[in-house]
Please model this.
Amino acid sequence: MGARKIIIDTDPGQDDAVAILLALASPDEIEVLGITAVAGNVPLALTAKNARIVCELAGRSDVPVYAGCDRPLGRKLVTAEHVHGKTGLNGPVLPDPTMPMQQEHAVDFIIDTLRIHDNGAVTLCPLGPLTNIAMAFEKAPDIVGRVAEIVLMGGAYFEVGNITPAAEFNIYVDPQAADIVFKSGAPITVMPLDVTHKALVTRPRNDAFRALGSRVGNAVADMTDFFERFDKEKYGSEGAPLHDPCVTAYLIRPDLFSGRHVNVEIETQSELTLGMTVADWWRVTNRAPNAMFMGDLDADGFFDLLTERLGRL
Model:
């Protein structure tokens, strides 16, 4: 079949960085056509910079990086420096990137790429707010039917919210964009908090990253050392959840994940539950399923894969 062609849409973020590294370490399964940056964990100037830092860390300055939307569709930007630090990549000391930003806007790159490639050839992998994807769909409705699949990190059902009592961060930042994407009709696979909170970087798992003895292994260990302090205090968990690498792991080893094809609606009106992903997990409505909503993963298999692939860089 060959490698799966993808666009990574991202707001790095330490866990975004690990997701990108996993993709770049897996050329037999994944061909990264480009990386599009969006405002989210930190403002756009930093997410676009961080995406290039990660590419250079992987030795892949050939991967084009495009800057996209600097704010949500209909509200002020909410960021997460309290989790990721002021730069978004706090933890390791990494040099500023030397590779250039592409001149084309990320939204136009998404549109052009989907039009250039065969129908159903390109998978979109959003790791942050869905602003760029929604803007592309609104600007060029013809591309929606050309998308092979959207595999995204976002939302929650049983784990409810991590930025409000009801909402997961990526969806909360731009619920209007999420609403557009979930109503688009494109095939969607969701990695919600229900899955990602099971991908915990325990001390032995982080030690395994550092034991790789490489620049990448040390950088990833330093990243998770930094942001786990927030999650361990918040959840009382053994370590920090690696949210976004679930997306790229699914592209390589879908058998590690299980879920249900259900209806998912996005709350866009209520101040109390804004950004909530209302997943009909128990199929109690007659609303048509529109997403594969993952509920579990093989955590040991996930970390075995991640450690083995990072060791290739």
